[in-house]
Amino acid sequence: MKSIKTTWCPGCGNFGILRAFINVIEKLNKEGIEKGKIVVSSGIGCHGKISDYLDLPSFHVIHGRVLPFLTGLKLANPELKAVGFVGDGDQYNEGIEHLIHAAKRNVDLALFVHNNGVFGLTTGQMTATTPRGKKTRSTPKGNPEYPINPLLLALSSGATFIARGYAGDMKQLEELMYDAIKHIGFAIVDILQPCVSFNNTWEFYNKNVEKLEKEASDIKEAIDIILSEKIYTGIIYRIRKDTFEESLGILKY
Ligand SMILES: Cc1ncc(C[n+]2csc(CCOP(=O)(O)OP(=O)(O)O)c2C)c(N)n1
Ligand code: SF4
Ligand SMILES: [Mg+2]
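Above: the input record for the complex with thiamine diphosphate. Below: its predicted structure, written as tokens.
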């Protein structure tokens, strides 16, 4: 395999996400799921370069459009494992409508969100998840808007696997990514990803991230965990429901 030079800033949280995923691919390969059966799509932004750093079939699509792309891919080739890598700006700003509809349909795919709270590639403007009051390139006096809660949105839209990971805990992230890919239905892992150049949250997350001890047993408990002031990582909620592919009668698991 040719070695490829990454262009991410040294210390970027994207490295932890890439490493964790490479370990997951190796694990899936050992279970007999060959590389050609795992298809990746990524959006536009620093996160989107991950497609270039993986030895897998991959599609670097236009801003915010990973989910419609993967939905089509699954309908055409339902036996493939569909994996999306998106940014917070990419998915929670430009592609927000697609999150709602793909979750509602319960398309069988795994979505990994590199949530760094900024538009990184375009040099640090606010996104939908930037905290209120935060000074960014586009909000020099502090962000006047309240951030959205992406996991609450995904849960209320119908996502059947809801998790939060941290780029600084690769071991846990690897487990979350593996479980998300194995889950049958729409799985989202919102990954807290420090951006050393425009939103350096390493210290804050190292202090404040807490592992969730037990996943929620019902949706009300899941909402409480998601709305908690504590920043929990782990699988928050999962449930098995018919997927889009099953509902259309093109696939039975
Ligand atoms: C439709 C469209 N709007 C805006 C842009 C410009 N643009 C390129 S990258 C980017 C920021 C991406 O931010 P995010 O998705 O959070 O990814 P990150 O760089 O932080 O990983 C923007 C706004 C674009 N390429 N296409
Ligand atoms: S700008 Fe931020 S997100 Fe982009 S590579 Fe650098 S540290 Fe990572
Ligand atoms: Mg971003």
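Notes for the reader.
The longest helix spans residues 14-30.
The two ends are 34 Å apart (CA to CA).
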